[in-house]
Amino acid sequence: MVGLSDEFEKARDDLLKGKNYSIIGMAGVGKTTLAKHIFEDPSIQRHFEFRAWIKVGRKCEFNELLRCLLAQVDPNAYEMLAQGDDDEEELIGFLKKRLKDKNCLIVLDDVWEVQAINRLRVLVVENICGSIRVLLTSRRNIVTIMSGCERLDLLNLKESMELLGMKVFGEEGFPLQLEKLGEKIAIKCEGLPLMIVTVAELLSKADKTPEYWTEVLKQRSSVFLDAYNQILEVLFPSYDYLPQHLKMLFLYMGAFPPYIDMINPRMLNDLLTAEGFFESIGEENFEDFFYTSLKDLSMQHHLVLKTTNSSTYRMLSCWQHLCKVEASRIKFLHVLQSCDDVIKDQRRLCAHWNNLFGFKQVYDLIKSDCAPTARSLLCHGPYHQYPIPIHAMGFKLLRVLYALNVRFYHIPIEILKLVCLRYLALNYNGELPPSISNLFHLQFLIIQRYMSIKKRGVQIYVPVQIWDMQELECIGVWGRDLPTPNTDDATLNKLTTLLGVSANSCTREVLKRIPNLKHLEIEAELKPYDNDDDETNPLSCLSYISQLQNLVALRYSIKNPEIKHEFKTIPLSMFPSSLTMLNLSGLGYPWKYMNDIGSLLPNLEFLTLESYAFRGPEWEIESGSFLKLIQLEIEDTDLVQWRPQRGSFPVLCELIMKHCYKLQQFDWPYDHSWINRIVLVDCNPSAVACANQLRDKFSFELMVESSF
């Protein structure tokens, strides 16, 4: 029971104190193992005169539950049960009589639905003199008669190594020559006990040599693939239980490469919009519906995980394997893995190794079997610096082309003829051709640069024909800018997101033509001689942002900040009061200006300050500041003391501080007991000690990652 001792003691003690209890978590995380240890614990056996273990499963009939319970608490009930008596009232009567004035523990393992479970109240509540307690395990967050709840997390690396070593070598653990390799194998198991145990069983049957374990890590052995296939039977019911819209979302997330923590919900939302999977449901728009669905997968069904900073998601590799197998089977999406893949009539094609497209056998296979029907091509593999001919494979009906990890030296004419495209993401350094406007259905245009080198004094603009593309919802053109339109009536009314532009795109003439902009990301380059009065100063050009009344998210970053330089005042006019998300980087202003921002933005919920956005040894937050802020993240700063006054941050739930090497102390008003989580990454040990003291007082979750 590695890694579960604290949870064991808490659940056991609560049951002995007369509380019901539930254990929840994803499949394979150890719920049943923990429940069995509690069920068999000597103190539990002494306290409860009757104990019953019922394997519930996806379908639970109340009568069947009663029959199973009666069979375990009354040895004389077999005759009645053998006659098939299903009268509910009679079964309840027998149980009440048998359990009256008795202490009984009922373990309900693997519960999916709550209706039949909640009907146990008739026994639990009416057994006044005795004590009937229920211990429940479930893969889902379900509302039941439980009063206590424990959500099982994945094992950390130390616990994973302990479990793996014990299962392969017994109590002695890893021999010295295999310890480092064992650590790497444990990392690839990602903390899921079921995966660790399955891999251990396979390793214990093979050569226990450094040479073989190296082959396992390089995936030249089938150990991990065999383990994935073995545990599919356990994992699949969690997927199969999902409603149809969550199945689609889950399978689409499986297209991302394994072992990454960077599934960006914003990008995923845009891809699904372009795919046309969802439509608005009633008054709920698609974006709200998407984020609700993503939250359900994470919090309700425990199938995807939020990363440390809570802004991206990840999926365990065993779940991604399930997604690949199922998505390919139903021809929803196929992840290309070798030259021998069967891809006939697949609608969506994905690659985790983009160089596969360079093989003639794969090229010919796609061109003949897949290209005529494919609607999406997703190149998620590692960055590939040489051109590959994905444009020449005969795709005609593509809606989505995601190729940010493929280097383009020019935009092929074949891509500019894909008139069905709704999402185009390329890695390209040159100027966009005017013919880009031929893609008149395009909703998302993402053009990143593989080099940021450019001629001094030269500003690169996208072609003015961009104003003819009326369906555009998102433009991401890092290192380029929107030009001023040629006509007075040119507008992009559907454009809600503009990313990677400089202050040159924030003129009155440009911004008034994108009135519905919600997300704006500005990248500025600061010259050493810039000052407040200089018209070339990137900050002095931003006074027109305040006219964007629908703007909710603003990111402003200076790519080459000069920390010794200090402006006289911060242009507060650049912050519309509608903002709920603000990300600032490299400004170098004193902390005192943050109080002005806190009072100016009454709706701000998420604030991120990076790369000396503000500087100085102390930030004393005035009372009444940041009244709606939920999350605060500070990264790379010389801050020594963080001092929120009483009445500031009244609803702050999460504080994240990264690479704050000088941070020694943060004070805490006594009324801030609502904080849920503090994350410290590579911060001063004094700050960690301070956080530990606060945790003892306020009982929040503390996560510490340090290289000190």
Architecture blueprint of SSEs:
Blueprint: H1 5-16, E1 21-24, H2 31-39, H3 42-47, E2 50-57, H4 62-73, H5 78-82, H6 88-99, E3 103-111, H7 115-118, H8 121-124, E4 131-138, E5 148-151, H9 157-169, H10 179-189, H11 193-204, H12 210-217, H13 223-240, H14 244-253, H15 265-275, H16 286-300, E6 305-306, E7 313-314, H17 317-329, E8 334-336, E9 348-351, H18 360-369, E10 376-379, E11 400-408, E12 423-428, E13 444-448, E14 474-477, E15 497-501, H19 508-511, E16 519-524, E17 553-558, E18 581-585, E19 589-590, H20 592-600, E20 606-610, E21 614-615, E22 618-621, E23 631-635, E24 641-644, E25 654-658, E26 665-666, E27 677-681, H21 685-698, E28 701-705
Parallel strand pairs: 1-4, 1-5, 2-3, 3-4, 8-9, 9-10, 10-11, 11-12, 12-13, 13-14, 14-15, 15-16, 16-17, 17-18, 18-20, 19-21, 20-23, 22-24, 23-25, 24-26, 25-27, 27-28
Antiparallel strand pairs: 6-7
Helix pairs in contact: 1-2, 4-6, 9-10, 9-11, 10-12, 11-13, 13-17, 14-16, 14-17
Question: Would you write up a description of this structure?
Answer:
This protein is an alpha/beta fold and 708 residues long. It is 30% helix and 19% strand. The strands form 5 sheets. The chain has a 16-stranded parallel β-sheet with strand order 8-9-10-11-12-13-14-15-16-17-18-20-23-25-27-28. A 5-stranded parallel β-sheet has the order 2-3-4-1-5, sandwiched between helices. The longest helix has 18 residues, at 223-240. The radius of gyration is 29 Å and the shape is globular. The protein starts with a helix and ends with a strand. The mean pLDDT is 86.
